[in-house]
Specification:
- This protein is an all-alpha fold.
- The two termini are 13 Å apart.
Length: 60
C-alpha cells in the first residue's frame, strides 16, 4: 500500500540485522536480542502492509 511504510520496515529490518551481527561479534546478548526484536517488528510491519494490499485488492 504505502511504499514509504514498506521502506521504513525494510530499513528497520536492516538495522536489526546489523545490530544482531554486532552483538554476535562482540558477544553482547543485549544487542543480539534488540536486533532480533527489530527484525520481528519489521516483519510485522511488512505483514500489515501485505494485509492492507490484499484488502485494497478485494475492495477494488
Amino acid at each position: 500500500m504505502s511504499l514509504q511504510d514498506r521502506a521504513k520496515a525494510t530499513a528497520k529490518n536492516i538495522e536489526g540485522k546489523i545490530q544482531e551481527a554486532v552483538g554476535d561479534l562482540t558477544g553482547d546478548p543485549k544487542d543480539q536480542a534488540e536486533g532480533k526484536a527489530k527484525q520481528a517488528e519489521a516483519k510485522a510491519r511488512q505483514t500489515l502492509e501485505d494485509i492492507k494490499d490484499k484488502a485494497k485488492e478485494i475492495i477494488d
